[in-house]
Amino acid sequence: MKNKGFTTRLVHADRVINKPQNGAVHQATNNSVLFAFDNAQDLVDVFQGKAAGHVYSRSSSASSVSLQNILCELEEGIGAVTFSTGMAAISATLLSLLRAGDHIIMSQFLFGNTSSLASTLQGLGIQISYVDVTDVQNVAAVMTPVTKLVYAETIANPATQVADLSAIGQLCEENKMLFIVDNTMTPANIFSPKSVKASLTIASLTKYVSGHGNVLGGVVIDTGLFDWRVFENILPMYRSADTQQWGLTQIKKRGLRDMGATLSPEAAHSISIGLETLALRVERICQNALRLASYLHGHEHVRHVYYPGLASHPQHYIARELFAGYGGIVSIDLVEKIDPLAFLNELNLVLCATHLGDTRTLGLPVAQTIYFENTAAQRAEMGINDNMLRFSVGIEDVDDIVADFEQAFAALQ
Ligand SMILES: *Cc1c(COP(=O)(O)O)cnc(C)c1O
User: Fold this and answer.
1) In a domain, 43, yes or no
2) Fewer CB in 10 Å around end: N or C, the chain?
C-alpha cells in the first residue's frame, strides 16, 4: 500500500496492517481487561518485553494497538501510544519525560488546557520560557545548553498563528533538543510534522481524526528522527538495545501504565471508523473555511478575520508552503457595536459549543470561556480580544453556512 494515495491506504489499513480474523475489515473490539497464559513463562516474557502480547488492558489491548499501528503508519513513525484524551497524551508525555530543574520552550499561543497544564509543570519545578513561535529567532533567543525540548502547535487556536515549523525543527536538530508538535489542527492528510523534523507528534483524536463528536482520544507518535541517547532523563531500565524506542517506552510505562489514562477498546474502534473519512472531511472543511473567511474578510461588521488561508494573514506564506489546506478554524473580531454573545444567539445552523474538528459548524466566545481563567494581559499576550468569536467550520453545504451568518448580521441591524 506504500505507493497508494492517502485515503486508499487509510480505508484498507486496519485489514492490511492488523489482519483481523475471518475476513473482517475492522479489528474486533475486545473488552477483556486480563489475558490468561497457558505457560507461565509466556506471561513473564510479555511482562519483560521479550515477546509481543497483552497482560492487562490499562497498558495495551488489541484494539488500542491496532489504532496505534494505523496512526503510526500514517505519520511514517516508529511507534505510537494512544491515550483516553488529547490532554492525557500531552500530560503523560511531558510528565514522563521531564524532571524538576529542566528548562523547556513552549509556544505562547497554546491550546488553553495545555497552557494550564504548563503552569502545573512550573509548580513541579520545570522552567518554561514562552515565546512567539511564529519566528524561530524568538526560540533561539531563549535556548540554553540545558533546554530539553521545544513544544509548539501547528496552527494556534483561536488566533490562528502559524509556527515557524521548518526553522524550529532545524534549530532543534542542530541543538539536539526534542521537538514536540501538537498536530491536532492539521491532521496527517494536510501536514506531516515529520517533514519539519518533529521528534514527537501529539494529537487529540477527539477532533478531526475521529471527527463526529462521539469519542475522546489522544496519541503520541515517535517519528524516529530524535536520538534518545542524548536525552538524559531516560531511566536506566528503558535504555534497551533499540535506542529508537527509549522515549516511547518511557512514555508507555510511566505515562500510560502508571498514570493510567488508557483509551478504551470501544473508543479505539470508534476513532478508527472516523479516521477512514479523515481526508474527505478535512478537505471539505478547509474549502468551507476558506470560503467563510473570504466572506467575513472585509465585511462591514467584522473588524478582523483570523485565517491562515487569507493572503493578509501574517504567516500565510508559511501555511501555503507547509500545509495542503489551511484548517477549519476561522476566528473573528466583530465591530464594537455588535455584542458577540448576541451574534452567536442569532446563528441558527451554527451551534454554540466548545469543540472543534466536528462535522458540524461550531462557534463560541473565546475570552469568556476557554480563557476566562486568564488575566486580560495574558489574553492580550496570546492575541485574544475580548469580543473574539471562534468558529470551527464543519462539512455542511457552504452556502448554508454563509447564509446563516448573513441572516444573523441582518437580524442585529
Ligand atoms: C482539543 C485539543 C487538545 C486536547 O484534546 P482532548 O482530546 O480534548 O483532550 C490538545 N491540543 C489541541 C490543539 C486541541 O485542540
Assistant:
1) no
2) C
Residue that finishes a domain, picked among 248, 275, 302: 275
Residue 51, pLDDT score: 93
Contacts for 295 with CB less than 8 Å, ≥ 6 apart: 402, 405
Ligand 1 pocket mutation, candidates 90, 106, 111, 362, criterion most atoms within 8 A of CB: 111
Is 204 near ligand 1, meaning CB less than 6 Å away? yes
For residue 217, the ligand 1 atom closest to its alpha carbon is 7
Residue 38, domain member (yes or no): no
pLDDT at 243 over 90: yes
Distance separating alpha carbons of residues 54 and 71, to the nearest angstrom: 19
- Upper half-sphere CA count for residue 393 (Cβ side, 13 Å): 29
Mean pLDDT (the chain, rounded): 96
pLDDT band at 384 (very low <50, low <70, confident <90, very high): confident
Report whether pLDDT(382) > 90: no
14 with 84, same domain?
yes
Q: How far does residue 152's CA lie from ligand 1's centre (Å)?
A: 13
Please tell me if the CB atom of residue 206 comes closer than 6 angstroms to any atom of ligand 1. yes
Residue 200 Cα to ligand 1 midpoint, Å, equals 16
Tell me the residue type at 225. L
Looking at the domain assignment, is residue 56 inside a domain?
Answer: no
CA distances to 4, 113, 276 from 9, rounded to whole Å, are: 6, 33, 9
Question: Which residue among 84, 184, 371 has the greatest number of ligand 1 atoms within 8 angstroms of its CB, and so is best to mutate?
Answer: 184
Name which residue sits closest to atom 1 of ligand 1, judged by CA: 204
188 lines ligand 1 (CB under 6 A): no
Domain extent, residue 385, equals: 278-411
Using CA positions, which residue lies closest to atom 2 of ligand 1?
204
Considering 275, 295, 326, which residue would you say is the last residue of a domain?
275
64 pLDDT higher than 90: yes
Residue 332 and residue 270 in one domain: no
Condensed to tens digits (0 to 9), the pLDDT of residues 94-140 reads 999 999 999 999 999 999 999 999 999 999 999 999 999 999 999 99
